[in-house]
Design goal:
With about 210 residues, this protein is mostly helical. The protein has helices at about 30-35, 50-70, 75-85, 90-105, 110-125, 130-135, 140-155, 160-170, 175-185, 190-205, and strands spanning about 5-10, 15-20, 25-30. It has two domains: about 5-105, Orthogonal Bundle (Arc Repressor Mutant, subunit A); about 110-205, no CATH class.
Length: about 210
């Protein structure tokens, strides 16, 4: 029977382990699954007869891991699936957990996209370009990102939004260039940023 000769931990994904049998890489799996199996380096394991048990443990651990991640903050299905795969979950188990979470309403990409668009644009003052980039980086589909941002920005132009953001960011020690720089870092066009900064400074004379 094959023997576990190494359990490799991954510094970039501490929840992921790669199990080596008889000196050769066998498969990746979450560290939680290994703990549930109760195996360690030097132990023997039968890849064939233990496969069903490992699959069941992996699904259970992936479900619990997903719930913990969702309790921490909202996520889209793409981001959550990426985290589970990074932890060592197989593509099959990941897809099963995502489908289960979606069917019971715990995971809703449209709801998440709308909430995220509101946070990025209304609360953090990001431009459409910057907000879109942030949302796509979280694994949300391009079409869903566009629709969510359309809903938030429907009645407002880029210049109006830049001015509102400049008002929130304004400090009494600001110059137009300094305030415009903070707008540019939030994704606003340089021209719109400078115009908005000058307008705010005109309304807040020293």
């Amino acid at each position: 029977m094959p023997r576990i000769t190494r359990i490799q931990r991954h510094s970039g994904s501490p929840a992921r382990c790669t199990v080596h049998l008889d000196g050769e890489p066998w498969r990746a799996m979450p560290a939680d699954v290994l703990r549930e199996l109760g195996v360690a380096e030097g132990d023997s394991i039968d890849p064939g007869s233990d496969a069903e048990r490992i699959a069941g443990l992996e699904e259970s651990c992936a479900w619990q891991r997903a719930l913990r991640l969702l309790r921490y903050r909202g996520r889209g299905s793409g981001e959550l699936a990426g985290r589970l795969r990074d932890d060592g979950c197989s593509a099959e188990v990941t897809a099963l957990v995502i489908e289960r979470l979606t069917s019971c309403g715990l995971l809703d990409d449209e709801r998440f996209a709308e909430a995220l668009a509101h946070t990025l644009v209304d609360e953090r003052g990001f431009s459409r370009f910057r907000a879109s980039r942030e949302m796509l980086a979280k694994g949300l589909p391009d079409e869903l990102v566009r629709h969510a941002l359309d809903a938030v920005l429907e009645a407002e132009s880029g210049r109006d939004r830049a001015f509102e953001t400049a008002e929130r960011l304004y400090r009494t020690s600001d110059t137009a260039e300094r305030l415009a720089g903070r707008l540019v870092r939030r994704g606003y066009a340089p021209g719109d940023s400078l115009r908005a900064a000058r307008q705010v400074l005109e309304e807040h004379p020293l």
